[in-house]
Amino acid sequence: MRVLILKDLIKMTKEERTEYNKAYYQNNKERIKSTVKKYAYKNRDKIKEYKDSRKEITKVYNRMSKQSKKLGYYVVYALPNYNNDDSVYCGFTQNTYSRMIKHRSKGLNTKNWFVLDVCKTELDARILEREYHIKGYEGKWIWGFKKRK
């Protein structure tokens, strides 16, 4: 494999560059891996310090973004058709955005969610949620106990 100069690399299409890079890596795999290992060993303290600083920054950022999305009041909401059947889920949250993301991550349908009521305190929201559960809405908490699966 011949070594290309920068001028040749610029003239290549994206597919040609990809093929060239793959071939270069295959031919120089051991050398590249050993260079990376040497660099990592030589700079392990700097790398650890950088990772630790990023962890702290990430924690602060996540905490700030989560707090900024909180509404300041509690929303009692409903998810119709949440298991792709006729059942309706009822729950409450202070952060509807992240709550819907959590529901979607569990595979639940959140397309047509709607607000049932808004409460100032968590206690009022819990009481209201229980009332909806009594009326037939499904949910995680029924009668103060976790629902069994």
Could you tell me the mean pLDDT?
81
**How far apart, in Å, are the first and last alpha carbons?**
61 Å
Approximate strand percentage: 15-25%
**Main sheet strand line-up:** 2-1-3
Largest beta-sheet characterization: 3 strands, antiparallel
> What is the H-and-E element order?
HHHHEEHEHEE
Structural class assignment: alpha+beta
Number of strands: 5
What's the overall geometry? Answer: elongated
Description:
The structure is a single chain. With 149 residues, the chain is an alpha+beta fold. The termini are far apart. Helix content is 56%, strand content 15%. The longest helix has 26 residues, at 44-69. The protein folds into 2 domains: 13-66; 74-146, no CATH class. It is elongated, with a radius of gyration of 27 Å.
Looking at this protein, list some descriptive labels.
3-stranded antiparallel sheet, alpha+beta, 2 domains, elongated, 149 residues
SSE layout and pairing:
Elements: H1 6-11, H2 14-27, H3 29-42, H4 44-69, E1 74-80, E2 88-93, H5 96-105, E3 114-119, H6 122-135, E4 141-142, E5 145-146
Antiparallel strand pairs: 1-2, 1-3, 4-5
